[in-house]
Design goal:
mainly beta; Porin; 14-stranded antiparallel beta barrel; 8% helix; 51% strand; elongated
Length: 345
Amino acid sequence: MVPYKNKILYFLIFALLLFTSSTYAGRGDKAGTASGVQLLIPIGARTIGMGCSPLANLRGIEAIYLNPAGFGFGEDKYQVMFSTMSWIADINVNYVAVGTMLDDIGSIGLAVKSLSIGKIQITTEDEPDGTGETTSPTFLTIGGTFARKITDNISVGFTSNIIYEKMANVSLTSICFNVGVQYVNIGGVDGLSVGALIRNIGPEVKYDGIGLLREADVTDALRKNSTVKIEADEAELPSTIEIGLGYKRNISGKNNINFTSLFQNNNFSNDEYKFGIEYDYDNLFFIRSGAIFSSIAENQENIFGPAFGLGVNTQMKNVKILVDYAYRKLRYFNGNHVFSILLKF
């Protein structure tokens, strides 16, 4: 007989694979045609320093973005995380998350991610060189997460994200969902974990607003001029399916090492393979590295290069403090600098 907890895991992973395998495949030829791509911008110095690969064994509030199931394995009553990243073209990504563990119910959290883009000159069809006015685009994602351990080894998590984008006089608002699972100590092997995730499942989105109104000549009417509205086209969200493995073990004394890997199947870009490694000394000092590889043609180049990171874990009275830094090399742009602070109570 298959143990009940294993039946649950097999069903969850099979459901994830069945739902997505018939719907999504790596489509590099569709790159640049999705909307809501800010949903794919990674969060956290630890995550980015390991090549965005620790899907299977990232724990606590750090896991809300990468795999909400890991949030269910958190051991602290309250957790707060702050993160900021210099992304590309002078765009900064800011993130804050708070969460708490509810006894016998699960863990709940709230996260906000925003892009700081600055001012952009407004251009129109009649004034392509600019109107003299500027606008500051808004890209905001607000997510609520619920995660729960269903056994000592299995956790599931669910995130509902509200997406809001605004540029000048047009905007869009929509919702999407992430569903993930983690299984630790597979087959009784201590430190061996697997994770799976469906990301950004939601309806098609489109822009609306007064910025789509235009003055037009109506030739077959008594009133020559009229206001018409341009109907914006709908676009899909950049959905993915991700499967990861992780293995953490003690190598000697207080020295530990963590290997992680991830396969990401994208519906609007090529598939990606991500790998990471983390060394920690007694859970106090961390050194990390990671890389992302894409299944791209020979004449194409992956914009994201290798990543490196450091972390320090300390405690002040009853507050645990983890400070992380990561650097990721980019092609054509300055590299990403990422800073994170995690507080646990």
